[in-house]
Amino acid sequence: MVDALVPGMVAQMRRNAAYLCIFLLGAWAWGSGLLPGLLERWEDIAYLGQQHVELVALSGGAAILFGVPLGVLLTRPRFRQVGAAAMQILNIGATIPTLAVLALAMSLLGLGNTPAVFALFIASLLPIVSNTMAGLRDVPPALLEAARGMGLSPRHTLLQVELPNSLFVIYTGIRTALAINVGTVPLAFLIGGGGLGELIFTGIALNEFGTMLAGAIPTALLAVLIDFIVAQLQFWTIPRGVNPLR
Amino acid sequence: MIRLDQVSKTFPGTTMPAVDRVSLEVAEGEICVLLGPSGCGKTTTMKMVNRLIQPSSGDIFIDGRNTSDYDVTQLRRSIGYVIQQIGLFPNKTIEDNICIVPDILGWDRRKSRQRAAELLEMVALDPGVFLKRYPKELSGGQQQRIGVLRAIAADPPVLLMDEPFGAIDPINRVIIQDEFLKMQAQIRKTILFVSHDIDEAVKMADRIAIFRNGRLVQYDTPDNMLAHPASEFVSDFVGGDRTLKRLQLLTVRDAMIADPPRVRAADSLQQAAAAMEAHGHQSIVLVGPRGRARGYVNLQTARGGNGTVGENYEALPTTIRPHEDLRTAVSTMFRYDTQWLACVDDDGMFVGYVTLRGITHLLSETYRDG
């Protein structure tokens, strides 16, 4: 019971803390005349925010579409040997700072959105693949034996037993990946990508506090919003029998 | 129905076979318990039947057809499978768990859900309450009941059960065993049942197969196994109290002396004494006008006594029904410090009596013949 509650409570507290911070920041921003300043820059924010979302959607979406099947593949019996090695590589890969990944991507693919999307894709891929593999490996062996003994095909077993029972861990990987992703997109500005990073870094360079916040606040809001959306998906799409949140 | 012919299994990297030239046949509708210590090959033998383990040599036939001629998933779908860890799918409701095999076989959904409800009723779980629940909301005993229902949902003729009740507490285990036997009396599946518990084997089995080091050392009915163990290993395994264990295989009816002489309330003690002496009995039962057992009279009381039986009888300490097992009968005798019990049918009519002497005689008969 306690085990089931803790992740839910932590997520709830995290969310509440985020809301509180945003509220305090907003109040302070309005009082100090920053928020009216933000509204003045609304056109920039909307335009760059859209770019930001596009970068997240492209790189994050690709990471999910590629990472989950890759994780599944690496846990199949015929790739089990490769899987162990791949897990090691992924763990080492996860320690590379995302800024370094961006720099490497730039050196390979030049400037612009392409290397940015590629680097974000790589940075988001790691948690998704490793969580998918961990989730699938944690499925109790008794379930697999029962499935095999009853004559479920490997495809049935994957779709009806393995994936539903590891979905929670997979979702957690996706949430981690998207949080990293949204937070890393501003760095894309450094290699010529778009996004709200443009306002942040311009603000820093020109020592314009208002401009910097015009990038930072929407980035923070976006991170919270995306995490909230995935959390809702996680809550509603995982069957009640294996969902520790309900 | 299930026939193993010289089946062996040697796992890669080992020289000793895990299963060594095992042949046995299980008749339709029978429960065969594979029994033996850990590592004796009983589970391996069972898993070769649905080809979870591929035999190294030998053939296995189900209903006359070699299992290696089947497509392996088709074979497994036609064989129910119950494991000790239960293995219900936690992401599915009880209903969907029961209907897994019907669903992959493409049964009509309404028909399979209807069947799930009927099956739940068979094990006295209210379908209205349980169908939509998830496994984690059930107790261990309830979960294993569902595990068994899941195995029989698609009505396979053959069931494999791998220590199915091993993880359930002793009290619930007895209940679920009884329930399963009652269900088996209706569904008449051919069952291979792995166990390491001799008491469970004696209770569940039509035949017991005892394994040692991959070899089948004895294949016999429980009563023969207990009465005539083929080797010292078997006799050690079934236990020093094996003759006592046979008591639960026999019913009161087996040892009962049926239709003995009886007296009525109006009969004189002299008549009672004469009836006892004529049959060599130490006591005689008094029956009421319709034949119900009312009490009894001892030979000593009757001899030299005056008056009628109705004025001199003693109450029966207790009675027993003919379908109860002899273990219960002996236990009842010990409890009431008596050497005999009157047997009555479900309506209380006196049908015979059973004596401790008669029981010991019955148990030792098989040894004299053998």
UniProtKB/TrEMBL annotation, chain A:
CDD domains: TM_PBP2. The chain crosses the membrane at residues 17-35, 55-74, 86-110, 116-136, 186-206, 213-236. Keywords: Membrane, Transmembrane, Transmembrane helix, Transport. InterPro entries: ABC_transp_perm/SBD, MetI-like, MetI-like_sf. The keyword Transmembrane helix applies. It is found in: Cell membrane. It is a multi-pass membrane protein. Its main location: membrane. Residues 49-230 form the ABC transmembrane type-1 domain. Pfam families: BPD_transp_1. Belongs to the binding-protein-dependent transport system permease family. This is Osmoprotectant transport system permease protein. It comes from Bosea robiniae. The lineage of its organism: Bacteria, Pseudomonadati, Pseudomonadota, Alphaproteobacteria, Hyphomicrobiales.
UniProtKB/TrEMBL annotation, chain B:
InterPro entries: AAA+_ATPase (IPR003593), ABC_transporter-like_ATP-bd (IPR003439), ABC_transporter-like_CS (IPR017871), CBS_dom (IPR000644), CBS_dom_sf (IPR046342), Gly-betaine_transp_ATP-bd (IPR005892), P-loop_NTPase (IPR027417). One of its GO terms (molecular function) is ATP binding. Residues 313-370 form the CBS domain. It is found in: Cell inner membrane. It is a peripheral membrane protein. Pfam families: ABC_tran, CBS. The keyword Disulfide bond does not apply. NCBIfam families: proV. This is Quaternary amine transport ATP-binding protein. The lineage of its organism: Bacteria, Pseudomonadati, Pseudomonadota, Alphaproteobacteria, Hyphomicrobiales.
